[in-house]
Fold each of these.
Amino acid sequence: MLTCWVYRQKISESLDAGHALPRTLPNHLQSCRSCRDFYEAGLQINELLASGAGRERVSSPPFLQGKILTALNDSREGPHPGRIRLAWAATAFAVAAVLVGAWFLWHQPPLQPQPQPVVRSGQNPGQAAEWFAAAARLPSEDTLLEWGQKLDQPLETELKSVLHDARKALASLAQNFLPDELSPLP
Ligand SMILES: [Zn+2]
C-alpha cells in the first residue's frame, strides 16, 4: 500500500533521528501489522547498534585529552607564547640597532668646513681646470697641509697677493676678450 510506504519513511526518519513518532503513526501501527513489525524491527536494530557501540568504544591514549585541552586553551588565549617571545626578541633587536646607530652618529666628529683654495684669477685656463678637478676630488693630506699654510700667511701678504692677482686677471681678461684697439694695455 502507498500509505504504508509513506508511514515507513516517517518511521525510519524518526528512528534515525531518535525522535518520537508523528501523532498519526500510532493509529496506523495499531491497525497495520506489517508496519508495526517494521517499526519493532527498527527499534531492535537501534538498540543493538547502541549496545554494540558501547562495546566497540576504544579508550583514547591518556596524553591525548591533555594535549587537545592545551591546544584549545592556547587558541583561546591568543598567539602561542613562543611566537610572543620571538616578536619581543625582534623588537628588542630593532631597538638595540637604532640605539647603536644613534650612538655612532652622536659620537662622530662634527664635519669641519673644508678650507677652499683661493682662486687665483690670473691662473691660465689649464691651471683653473686643474683646480676645479682637484676641488671635485677629496683633498689629499698634502693639499690640506698646503691650504693650511696658505691660510696662515699674514693678512697683508694675502691682500697684496689678491690685488696682484686681480690686476693680472683684469689684464688677462682684457687680453683675451677685448679687441686690440680697446685694450688698455700695450
Ligand atoms: Zn502499514
Note: The pocket of zinc ion is lined by residues 4, 7, 28, 32, 34-35 (CB under 6 Å).
Amino acid sequence: MEVKDLENTQWDLLDLGKEETLEEDLATIKKLASEIESQKKDYVSAISMEKFREIFKHYEDILVALSQFTTYAYLKFYKNTADARAQALTAKADQIEAEIKNKILFVELGFKEFDDKNAQRLISASLPYQHYLERLRELKPFTLKEDVEQAINIKDTTGISALISLYEVFTSDFMFDFEGKKITKEELVKFVRDPLPEKREMAYQNLLGRYQQNKNTLSLMYQTVANNWKNEMELRKYPSPLSIRNKRNDLYDQDVEVLLKVFKKNISLFQDYFKEKARLLSMKKLRRFDLYAPFRKTVKHYTFPQAKEMVLASFQPFPEFVQYASAIIENHLDSEPNPGKRGGAFCHYPNHITKPYVMMNFVGDVNSVRTLAHELGHGIHAMLSSQKNNYFHYDPVLPMAETASTFGEMLLLDFMKKQSPELIQELTLGQLDDAYATIARQFHFVLFEKEAHELIKNGGSREDLEHLYLKMLREHLGDAVDVDDIFKYEYLYIPHIYHTPFYCYAYGFGLLLSLGLYTRYLKDPSFKKNIIQIFSAGGNDTPRNILKKAGIDMDEEFWQSGFDCLQELLKEARNYRLDAAESSP
Ligand SMILES: [Zn+2]
C-alpha cells in the first residue's frame, strides 16, 4: 500500500509556541530567571513559609516556561532534522537551558543546605511539593560539600562525561562490510532479524567482530566507568553500586532485590519459549544468532483512521483512556513518515499543563498499530497524572514510566485477538519475543553489571570480564540455546551499561508491573479504579507507596503474577503449528 493512502495525521505546535513570538517567550523566561535570582539573599534556613512557597512556585513557573521553549525547538527539529532553522533553534534552546538552569540552581542546592528542623518546617508547609522536597532531603546524606560537588562537576566534564562521549563517537563511527556494501551499525543490526539463518549469523559475527577488534580500548573504557561508579559510591557512602540507581528511581534496594530474585526463579520460562520457538521455526535447537528470527507475518494493512478506531475501541473499558487518547490524536500526534523525520516513535510530555505530543512513523502494519497504542498509553499516563500534580510530581519515575504504555498495548492486543482470530498466533509470539527482550535480556544485563563491578573492584582483567559475560549468558539461556564464543564481546556493545549503569531493570519492572495489573483487572474488573489511581499519582510518592495505596504490595507474589501471565501465553504457543511455508523461508 502506498504511504499516501494511509491518511496519516500531523500535529500542530501552537500549544508550545509560535515562530513569531519565540523571542518574546524567551525574554519572559529570562525576566523570570532574573527576578528569582534577586531573591537569592532571602533564601536562608529561617525563610518564612509564605516566602518559600512563593519562591518555589516561581521556580516551577520558570521550569514550565523553559520546557515549552525547548520542546518547541526539539519537536520542530524531529519533524525535519534537515531543517537548518530548526537545527539552529535546538542549539539555542540547549544554550538557554544551561544558562537559565545555572541561575536557578540555588533553589534546590540551597534547600539541601538548610538545617533539618527548618527543612522539616518548610516541607510540612509546602503540601503540593512535599514528596519532591523530601526526595531532595533524602539525597542530602549522599551530597558532598558544595565546593567538592563543584569540583566533581568540573572534573566530570573532562573525565567520565568525556569518556562516555568518546565511547559513543568511537562506536557510532563503526562501518561494516556486508554483502559488498559499506553499511552503518543501525543498518547491520536489522539483519539479526533476517529470515535467513546464515544472514543472522553473519550480521552478528560482523558486528561483534568489530567490538572484538577494539576489545582493549572498549574494555578499558568499561572498567573506567565501573571504577568511577565505585569511587562515587565510596565518596558518597552508598551501600552498594546498585543502590545509587535505586535512589534515583525512588526505589528501596529491597524492592529491586525481590524483583531480581523472582526473575531468577522464572528464567526457565524464557528457555522453554526458545525451545518452542525452535520447534515453530523447524530448527533442532536455536543458536544465540536466532533469538530474533522472525515468524512470518500476515500481510495486513490498516489506514491511520482504521488504526485509530481500533485503538480507541480497545480502550473502551477505560473511558478516561478514550477521552485522553482522542484529545492527543486530535492535534498533538504526528504519524506521517517523511524524509528527514526522526525514526522510531516517542511520546513527550514537557510539563503538567501542555497536552502530550506523540511522534511516530505509521506505515500501516500491525506493529504500527501497537506503537500507536503504546505511545498513546504514555500520553494517557501523563494526562491522568497532570490532573492532580504539579511540575515536580506529574512525571512518573523511570521504572513506572512504561506501565501505562504497555498496558495500552495489552488492551489493544486482546481486542485484536478477538476481532481477528487469524492474527492470534502472530500477536502472541510477538508478545513473547517482546517479553524476552524487555524483561529477561535487561535483567541479565543488570545481573552481569553487579558481578562485573565487583570483579573490576577486585582487579579483574579484560579476559575475566569476557569469561564472566559468556558464562552468565550461557547460564541465562540454559540448554535451550547454543551460544557462540563471539558473544563474550557482547558486553562491549551495550551502551546503557556505559552511560547509565544499572539502568536496564527499569524496562522489565515496567512491563511486569503492567502484566500484574492487567491480570488483576481481568480477574476483577472493579480493579479499574485502582489502575487509574496508580496512573494518576504520577511521581508524587515512591512507587512502593503509590502501589500500596492502590492495594498492591511489591512482593514476590505480585511479581510472580506477571510471570504467570507470560506462562499462559507460552501455554497457548505450545499448541501452535506453523506450516513450513508459513515460517522462515
Ligand atoms: Zn515506551
Note: The pocket of zinc ion is lined by residues 374, 378, 402, 405 (CB under 6 Å).
